[in-house]
C-alpha cells in the first residue's frame, strides 16, 4: 500500500484522507460536522440542479427519472441529518464556502438560466454526474472509518452509496440521450470533471480552515494535521476521482 501510494496520487490522497478521518470522526462533533455537510449536499446542492431540469416537463420519461432521483436525495438528506442528530451535539452551521456546488458554479455558471434545449438537459445532468462520482468515491473512503465509531451511521452510508451507483447510471443514460453528439458529451464531461476537481480542492482547503478554527480535532492532532496538510497542499496533482477519463456507460433509456 505504501509503494502504491507513492506511485499513484489518488491512492496517496485516499490513504491520507482515511488517516485524517480517523482523527475527525473520533468525536461526536466531528461526526456531526461531516454528516450535516453531507445532508446539505444531498438536499440543497443537488436539489438546485433538479429544479433546473424539472422546468423541462415535456419529456415524461425524463420527468419521472428526475422525480425519483430528487426523492432519493431528499431521503438521503433526512438520513444524514438524523445520523447527525444522534451524535448528541448540535448540528454545526455550514458556511457557503464549504458547498462544492457553489464553488463549482463559480467556475462554470450552471445556474441562472432555464433548461430549455436538449443540450441544456445534458449539461445539467453532467453536473449531477460529476457530483455523484465524487459522492461515490467519498462514501467509499468515509464508510469504513465511520464504522469504527458508529456502525449504524456506517450502514446508512453504505446504503446511500448503493443508491448513488444507480443514480450514476441515470446520469449516464440521460446525458447520452440528450447529447447533441457523443463528442459534445465527452468534451463537456471532461471540462466539468476538471472544474469539479478544482472546486473540490478549494472545498477541501476551506474545510480544513474551518476545522482548524473550531474544536473538531484534539490540539495535538490539529497541530500535526495543520503541518502535514501545509506540506501536502504544495503538490500540483488535482484530486480527480477514479472516474476521470472514463466516458462510457452501460445503462440506456428506451428510445
> What is the name of the CATH topology?
Ferritin
Give the fraction of residues assigned to helices.
over 70%
CATH class equals Mainly Alpha
Overall mean pLDDT stands at 84
Overall radius of gyration: 18 Å
Helix/strand/pairing category = mainly alpha
Estimated share of beta-strand residues: under 5%
How many domains? The number is 1
Q: What is the approximate shape? A: globular
Question: How is this fold's topology laid out?
Answer:
Elements: H1 2-7, H2 9-24, H3 28-54, H4 60-85, H5 100-108, H6 118-147, H7 151-178, H8 182-213, H9 219-232
In words, what does this structure look like?
The protein is built from 9 helices and no strands. By secondary structure, the chain is mainly alpha-helical. The chain has one domain (17-232): Ferritin, core subunit, four-helix bundle (Ferritin), CATH 1.20.1260.10. α2 (9-24) crosses α6 (118-147). Residues 1-6 and 250-255 have low confidence and may be disordered.
What's the quick description here?
The protein is an all-alpha fold. Helix content is 74%, strand content 0%.
Question: Can you tag this structure with a few keywords?
Answer:
255 residues, mainly alpha, Ferritin, 9 helices, globular, disordered N terminus, disordered C terminus
Amino acid at each position: 500500500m505504501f509503494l502504491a501510494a507513492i506511485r499513484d496520487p489518488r491512492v496517496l490522497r485516499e490513504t491520507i484522507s482515511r488517516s485524517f478521518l480517523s482523527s475527525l470522526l473520533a468525536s461526536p462533533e466531528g461526526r456531526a460536522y461531516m454528516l450535516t455537510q453531507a445532508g446539505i449536499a444531498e438536499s440543497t446542492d443537488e436539489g438546485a440542479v433538479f429544479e433546473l431540469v424539472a422546468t423541462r416537463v415535456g419529456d415524461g420519461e425524463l420527468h419521472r427519472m428526475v422525480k425519483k432521483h430528487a426523492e432519493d436525495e431528499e431521503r438521503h438528506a433526512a438520513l444524514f441529518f438524523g445520523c447527525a442528530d444522534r451524535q448528541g451535539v448540535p448540528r454545526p452551521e455550514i458556511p457557503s464556502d464549504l458547498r462544492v456546488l457553489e464553488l463549482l458554479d463559480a467556475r462554470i455558471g450552471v445556474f441562472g438560466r432555464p433548461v430549455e434545449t436538449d443540450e441544456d438537459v445534458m449539461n445539467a445532468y453532467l453536473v449531477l454526474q460529476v457530483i455523484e462520482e465524487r459522492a461515490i468515491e467519498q462514501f467509499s473512503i468515509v464508510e469504513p472509518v465511520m464504522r469504527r465509531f458508529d456502525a449504524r451511521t456506517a450502514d446508512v452510508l453504505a446504503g446511500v452509496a448503493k443508491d448513488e451507483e444507480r443514480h450514476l447510471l441515470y446520469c449516464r443514460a440521460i446525458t447520452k440521450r440528450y447529447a447533441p453528439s457523443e463528442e459534445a458529451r465527452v468534451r463537456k464531461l471532461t471540462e466539468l470533471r476538471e472544474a469539479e476537481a478544482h472546486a473540490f480542492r478549494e472545498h477541501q482547503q476551506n474545510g480544513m480552515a474551518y476545522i482548524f478554527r473550531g474544536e473538531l480535532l484534539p490540539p495535538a492532532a490539529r497541530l500535526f494535521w495543520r503541518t502535514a496538510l501545509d506540506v501536502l497542499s504544495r503538490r500540483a496533482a488535482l484530486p480527480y476521482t477514479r472516474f476521470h477519463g472514463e466516458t462510457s456507460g452501460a445503462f440506456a433509456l428506451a428510445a
